[in-house]
Structures are given as C-alpha cells and as structure tokens.
Amino acid sequence: MGSVNDGHLAGLDASRLEVVGSSSLKQSRKDGAAPFGSTFTAHMLVVEWDSQSGWKIPRIVPFGSLALSPAANVLHYSSTCFEGMKAYRGIDGKIRLFRPSMNMARFNRSAARIGLPTVDEDTLLQLIWKLIKIDQHFISNKEGQSLYLRPTMIATTPDLSLILPKSALLFVIASPVGSYYKSGFKAINIETVSAVRAWPGGVGDFKVGSNYGPSIVPHHRAHLNGSDQTLWLIDDDRVTEANGMNIFAVIKDKITNTVELVTPPLDGLILPGITRDSVLQLGREKLAGLAFSVSERKLTMTELQDAAREERLREVFGTGTAVVICPVRNIKWRDTAFSCGLEAMQEAGPVAEQMKRWIENRQFGHEENEWGITMPM
User: Fold this and answer.
1) How high is the pLDDT of residue 1?
2) Is residue 275 helix, strand or coil?
3) How far is Cα 92 from Cα 99, in angstroms, rounded to an integer?
4) Packing angle, helices 100-113 and 121-134, rounded to 10
5) At residue 154, what are phi and psi to the nearest 5 degrees?
6) What is the Cα–Cα distance from 89 to 128, expressed in whole angstroms?
7) What end-to-end distance do the CA atoms of the chain give, in Å?
8) pTM of the predicted model, to two decimals?
9) CA 37 to chain centre
10) Nearest of 282, 293, 246, 263 to residue 360 by alpha carbon
11) pLDDT band per the 50, 70, 90 thresholds, residue 184
12) pLDDT for 44-101, tens place per residue?
C-alpha cells in the first residue's frame, strides 16, 4: 500500500511559502468558553498536489471556504485523512507542540493507506510552525487551554471512478480550545454498542475519515441513553477503544495483589494514539517497580466486570489529544452498568490524575523534556 508519490515530482518546499494576511477583525478567544472545535483562527495553510507536477506552492491564507467539484473523490469515497495536535503556551511564555513528529509520521501512514500523497514530515512541521507563529495571539496563556491544530488531506480528483487520486489538497486549520468536555476534568459514563468500529484487516489503526463518520449515530444514541461516550467492542466482549480515545484500566491481581495498568494492544483494530504511547512510557518509567506492571494485552468486558464485582477494578480512563486524560465512572454493558472504582465524590483515580499532571507538565513547560518541542524563533 504505497503512496502515489513519484521521485521525479516536486516535493513539499517550505522555502516557497506565500503568506496572504487576513483583513478580518476576528478576535482571539482565550476564555475556552466556545464548544470544542467550533471557532477558528484567522488563517489556514493550504497546499495543492497533482500527479503531474507534485506539490505546489504552500500558502497561508485567510480562513475561508474551499472550492471543490461535486465529483471530487473525497465527497463520494471518504478519501481523507487527518491529524489532531495542540500548541500550548507554557508558563515561560514559550509555545510548544507535544511530540509532533509522531503526528507527522501517523499522517503519512494514513495518507499512504488511502492512496494520497505523502509529505516530507519535517517540511510539513515547518509550515505548521509558520501558521502557529502568525496566529499565535489565539493561544491562551491559561493552563489547560491550547490551540487545536487539524492537518487534513483530501482527494480532489473530479472523477467518480475508483482510482488513485490524481489531485489532492493538504490544509491545516486551527481552533482555540479549552476542555473537551464542558464539565472539565470530571469522570464520564460510557456504554458499549452493538455496532463495530473496526475489524481485522480493516483501517481501524489509521486516522481516516471513514472511521469517524459511521460512529456518529451510535455516539448520539449513547448520549440519548445518558452516556457521554461509546466503547467499541469486537465479538461483544473484547475492548478496542472509545470514541476518539484509547482505553486504560487499572486492575488489582486477585492472587499477587500487584496492580496492572493495562490497555489493548496495537493489533490493527485501534488507533496508535500519541497520548496512549505517552501514558505507557510514563507508566514504565515512573510506576513500574512500585507494585505496578504496565501491559499491552487483550482486555475484555468480562474481565472488567469481574474485577469490578470483586472490587479489584481501581480505575478506567481514556486518553487522546483532545481530552488528554478522561476518567470513567461507570461502564454500561449488556444493559447493566458497573462501577470503575471511583467513590461518589471522586472525579478521577490517582493514576489518571498523575498521568494528567505528568503530561501537562511537559506540555506547558513545567518540566523541560524532549516531548515538548518549542516553537523555532
């Protein structure tokens, strides 16, 4: 499954960047009051590609609508991929991205899977930094708020045939955000659904549009049932991930009394989340040896329910760029809800709280670390 790149075509070139400043009086919104992802900055990055010449001149232009043929591939076959990443203004005033090279690598992997062109990852990151620098006044200096960045690529070929794209558009838009949930860092309720998000041999481990559109109706139904999120299963028992989040559980072993931090493995069914990887690394670095083990293995609802019944399920939480860490209070499975270990007045368990603190310390500059990449001068 290679990309449609050709070594003789023009590559992405940041030195050719053209900037068209916005005349809009759009004001930055730094209070985090707007719903997540509903307001946008004044500019966006756009770069066109075609199979004859390769990548064209990158441009930063005023935020606005895109012009597409109604026959564009993306409108019919969901030939699109995207990323989610954030820029943070640290306590030292510096702007940082969190592990952005992982986003760039995942973006290329997703693009190649659906036949879109790949990019030079360092060059795309340079262009994203240029966009951030121009719209940096939209980044709040309040901890917990950030600038959400959405790199996206779509197939624009005006052809209804099922063929590799002959033209594409790469664009990056940015949205000032606060907490993903209006309630802030509080435990949510999730429920399993009969629908299946991904299956062996599919594209569950790629960040492509076709993974997300079909999840909206089950997610909406969960909301109508009083739940905040859906939890996706395979064979009505095996845990994969939640809507937009990887899932972790903290379980006490009934024989050894050791505590395990566990998440499902990267087996092709779930997205290789960057926050997921960060939690695993932090767990192995800071928790291992403190009567904790850290595992990537098959996790089932039967195991979680049994652990909850025996009061061995200490915590469940989700991870993702948008939510960072999201504690779970109850899970509903087969019409029965069970507790994930939190007390009535407790919003997060100690592992979830500590993971959130460790990650945000690196995002906001409390701890200098190679994960927090500072904006070039």
Assistant:
1) 47
2) helix
3) 19
4) 120
5) -130, 150
6) 16
7) 38
8) 0.94
9) 13
10) 282
11) confident
12) 999 999 999 999 999 999 999 999 999 999 999 999 999 999 999 999 999 999 999 9
